Amino acid sequence: MVFVIGCGDGNDDSSPVAIEPTAVVVQAVATVAPAPSTATPKPVPPTATPKPVPPTATPVPPTATPVPPTATSTATPVPNNTYKTYGFTLKLDPDTDFESTGLNASGYTKSPADNSQGLLTFSYNGANVILYWQPASTDVQPQQAVVNALSLLSNGSPTITFTAVSEGDIVVDSIAGRFGGFVSTNSDGTAAGGGLIGAWDCTSTSSNFSLIVSSADSTVLQIRFDRIIENFSC
To answer: What is the full DSSP assignment across 71-124?
Structure first.
């Protein structure tokens, strides 16, 4: 409430004027509080420190060591014209096979034949062949072995006379040996043919070999004898 008092010069006899108070309405502004939220606030997880991601390694496949296939062992077939059984090799002409020669193997000093001793007999394109082997001996050199072979023939064919006609040196598989030639006569005096005897030692097997080739044809005889000693190996 405000009162206004006027002052005169003392001569004014007017009464004081009363001023009615002016009501000042102050309208209160109500502050509306926000309604509380009914939603439960989700907790905010703490910010995680990102873990370092290791570099992606490219997988390396294991190196497989190749395993070669197991080879099946196959024995090398022996040609039909080759005899390879008792520690030596005997070859005939390429067009001749042992199956057609009537080959027979037997023991010489004992039975059966083995690497130390034995005897082969067969026919070879017009010639008859005997090959036998026994342990080498200093008492029986190739020259003596030729003589012994001729005696063996005489004892085995008492109706035939064997006469030595030649002798000399031979080489069999780079080994020095001896040979002897003979002619044979029937009991009635007719010619029964002839033959060649070869003898040599194989040091690799410590064996002595004696070869007897006989034929009624001297040319066939020489060719077959040469073929055998040329293609023989210890």
So the answer is: PPP-PPPPPTTEEE-SS-EEE--TT--GGGTT-EEE-SSSSS--SS-EEEEEE-
Give the residue extent of every domain in the chain: 100-230
Report yes or no: 146 and 179 within 8 Å, Cβ to Cβ.
Answer: yes
Model confidence, pTM:
0.67
Predicted confidence at residue 60, as pLDDT, reads 47
Instruction: Name the amino acid, one letter, at 3.
Output: F
Give the integer Cα–Cα distance in Å for 81 and 100: 10
Q: Mean pLDDT across the chain, nearest whole number?
A: 79
- At the second CATH level, the architecture of 100-230 is 3-Layer(aba) Sandwich (3.40)
Give the up-direction half-sphere exposure of residue 20: CA atoms within 13 A in the CB hemisphere. Answer: 2
Q: Which of 140, 131, 75, 78 is nearest to 103 (CA)?
A: 131
CA neighbor of 210 nearest in space, from 233, 182, 179: 179
Both tokens of 214, joined, read 């006989």
State how far the alpha carbon of 112 is from the alpha carbons of 71, 124, 137, 148, in Å. Answer: 35, 23, 21, 22
Each residue's pLDDT tens digit, 173-222:
999 999 999 999 999 999 989 999 999 999 888 999 999 999 999 999 99
pLDDT digits (tens, 9 = 90+) for 102-143: 999 999 999 999 999 999 999 999 999 999 999 999 888 999
83 and 98 in contact (C-beta within 8 Å)? yes
Closest-CA residue to 163 (of 199, 191, 130): 191
